[in-house]
């Protein structure tokens, strides 16, 4: 029985809009084609396939298959990368979302954050599933993630003996067998009705929720009942950058009504307004949680970018690769430590010598370093406009420009937004995603992010400069020519008082490139005398991770802190109790200088959380991105908190 047949059975039986199928093993490309055809016939439903597959030589080959890459994105190839964790691919043409969870089956399933009591409508075990991992413990994890009516199907190519064993294991956790005869169904139903199975599932879910308690996952009450009429009050987003636009798109894909408030005359006028922005992952030598998040986020950004381009949106970009080198002894050691500290997948990062770096870049370089083969540059403005335009095309997404929100208020279970002239609302959910102004409201004023001014210089392309064919990253960065201009920079000034052009920062940007590539003749052609530049402010967190999740209620946290601090008992309290948050209020910000790489996945994860879906990130990533993490990390260790307002 193929997964497409399984899907048809579930679609026919499901009365709700969302359908989720889980699969163990990659399966075949032919089966995936059948699935896409099946989904295309049911565009009224939103369908998600969650594929759990191990990383081995066979899976690496299949993930890199050209046919699969083209199947995942029409007109633009989207390649999967054999790294541990989730890679989400959205096939926009048919409305199918595929999450590829790569790694040990049990580890991947246990790392999933719990959102609802059960969300998977059925499981399929493909013929290429690793049989040694199909244990009873794994089946309990399948059951934990499943609805009470979830069923199991097996690939026909599995041996009869194995099928029998797997069906027995499924019965023991209360999973229904798709192709069972009536007698078998009756017997199985008796088992499924056994309270023990469902009590075990509930216990496993409770354990997962207890682990994630310090960083609660909060769906928004998007629908309210007024005089027996169901009313969708919609979702408000404050902000007009790439993160806000990608969030609007992710919500629109979930058929949500969205209103985006932007204080400027057009989208992407602040930090997202640069002509070219580099897109590549932030890696660490030990490949820590931050490094892992950036890899998955970077891959999702590439998928988002290619998908929007394939849908006909005009976006300036070139995934020409990024060459990362040092500029002095210390930075060279750091670059070497990164590339040698972990066995990176070659689609993520490759070690290169000076000759290879020169050949890739198209200009002479004296240092080797790291090559990010899938990276490059993109116009943030184009990316932002494309994302929001697509949101408008598929759902009720409206844009209010020249609208500066001065205050936000929670009243009678809904959010209201005030400008100088008007009040907007009610909204059942509100996301503060307005970049440098993210701390302007009383509910968000203590979020731990700092503004850094950045001036990006524009220089005309000349004969030797025009040969630059990859993004260069060293002390500063420099892009290949686009419309006869290169971008280089950027300055990095903490808490700058204005965003006016700075002649000193213009020269500073030139010196960074001269310092990075000493004595190269092509550097001599860089001319900043035209005073062409652009200034923006990016919000940076202490740990360089974005902020994504429910807005922490700091007043309530500090009130609780008076009773639960600096004792072993206090640590237990904070470990076991959900941290207080503002109902229906969320934060998306702190994207720093790598927002193109980190922002779209954070937006997608937040949209999933708001809508009560499983996020395409692990429980560790939920904690990493939580806007409350700085305070909770101290509380969980029994350390003292600074009082609100202290730096």
Automatic annotation (TrEMBL):
GO MF terms, alphabetically ordered: tRNA (5-methylaminomethyl-2-thiouridylate)(34)-methyltransferase activity
Q: What is its EC number?
A: 2.1.1.61
GO annotation, biological process: methylation
Keywords annotated in UniProt: Cytoplasm, FAD, Flavoprotein, Methyltransferase, Multifunctional enzyme, Oxidoreductase, S-adenosyl-L-methionine, Transferase, tRNA processing
- InterPro entries from the entry? FAD-dep_OxRdtase, FAD/NAD-bd_sf, tRNA_S-uridine_synth_MnmC_C
Query: Pfam families per the record?
Result: DAO (PF01266)
Domain FAD dependent oxidoreductase: residue ranges: 235-608
Annotated protein name in UniProt: FAD-dependent 5-carboxymethylaminomethyl-2-thiouridine(34) oxidoreductase MnmC
């Amino acid at each position: 029985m193929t997964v497409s047949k399984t899907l048809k059975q579930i679609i026919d039986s499901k009365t709700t809009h969302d359908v989720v199928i889980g699969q163990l093993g990659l399966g075949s490309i032919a089966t995936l084609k059948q699935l896409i055809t099946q989904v295309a016939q049911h565009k009224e439903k939103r369908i998600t396939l969650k594929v759990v597959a191990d990383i081995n030589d066979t899976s690496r080959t299949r993930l890199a298959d050209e046919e699969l890459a083209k199947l995942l994105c029409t007109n633009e190839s989207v390649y999967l990368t054999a790294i541990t964790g989730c890679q989400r691919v959205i096939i926009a043409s048919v409305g199918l979302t595929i999450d590829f969870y790569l790694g040990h089956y049990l580890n991947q399933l246990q790392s999933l954050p719990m959102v609802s009591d059960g969300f998977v409508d059925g499981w399929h075990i493909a013929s290429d599933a690793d049989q040694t991992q199909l244990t009873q413990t794994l089946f309990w994890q399948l059951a934990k993630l499943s609805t009470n009516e979830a069923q199991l199907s097996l690939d026909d190519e599995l041996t009869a003996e194995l099928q029998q064993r797997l069906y027995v294991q499924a019965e023991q956790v209360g999973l229904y067998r798709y192709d069972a005869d009536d007698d078998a169904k009756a017997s199985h139903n008796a088992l499924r009705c056994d309270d023990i199975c469902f009590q075990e599932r509930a216990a496993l879910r409770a354990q997962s929720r207890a682990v994630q308690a310090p960083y609660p996952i909060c769906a928004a009450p998007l629908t309210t009942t007024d005089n027996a009429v169901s009313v969708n009050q919609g979702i408000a987003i404050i902000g007009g950058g790439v993160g806000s636009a990608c969030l609007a798109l992710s919500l629109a894909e979930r058929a949500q009504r969205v209103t985006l408030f932007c204080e400027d005359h057009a989208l992407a006028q602040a930090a997202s307004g640069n002509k070219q922005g580099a897109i590549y992952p932030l890696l660490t030598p030990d490949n820590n949680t931050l490094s892992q998040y950036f890899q998955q986020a970077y891959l999702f950004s590439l998928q988002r970018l290619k998908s929007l381009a394939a849908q006909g949106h005009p976006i300036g970009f070139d995934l020409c690769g990024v060459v990362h080198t040092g500029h002095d002894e210390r930075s060279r050691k750091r670059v070497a430590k990164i590339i040698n500290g972990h066995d990176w997948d070659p689609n993520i990062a490759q070690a290169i010598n000076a000759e290879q770096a020169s050949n890739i870049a198209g200009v002479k370089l004296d240092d080797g370093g790291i090559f990010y083969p899938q990276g490059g540059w993109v116009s943030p403005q184009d990316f932002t406009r494309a994302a929001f335009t697509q949101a408008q095309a598929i759902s009720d997404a409206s844009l209010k420009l020249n609208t500066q929100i001065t205050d936000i208020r929670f009243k009678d279970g809904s959010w209201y937004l005030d400008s100088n002239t008007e009040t907007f609302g009610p909204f059942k959910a509100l996301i503060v995603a307005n970049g440098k102004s993210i701390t302007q409201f009383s509910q968000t004023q203590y979020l731990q992010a700092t503004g850094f001014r950045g001036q990006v210089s524009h220089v005309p392309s000349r004969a030797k400069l025009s040969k630059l064919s990859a993004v260069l990253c060293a002390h500063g960065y420099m892009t290949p020519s686009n419309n006869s201009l290169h971008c280089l920079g950027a300055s990095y000034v903490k808490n700058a008082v204005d965003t006016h052009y700075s002649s000193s920062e213009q020269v500073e940007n030139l010196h960074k490139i001269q310092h990075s590539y000493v004595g190269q003749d092509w550097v001599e052609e860089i001319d900043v005398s035209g005073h062409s530049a652009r200034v923006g402010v990016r919000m940076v967190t202490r740990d360089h991770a974005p902020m994504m999740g429910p807005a922490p209620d700091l007043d309530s946290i500090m009130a609780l802190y008076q009773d639960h601090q600096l004792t072993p008992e206090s640590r237990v309290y904070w470990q076991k109790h959900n941290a207080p948050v503002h109902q229906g209020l969320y934060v998306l910000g702190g994207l720093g200088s790598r927002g193109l790489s980190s922002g779209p996945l954070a937006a997608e994860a937040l949209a999933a959380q708001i809508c009560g879906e499983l996020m395409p990130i692990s429980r560790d990533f939920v904690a990493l991105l939580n806007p409350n993490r700085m305070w909770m990390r101290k509380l969980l260790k029994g350390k003292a908190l600074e009082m609100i307002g202290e730096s």
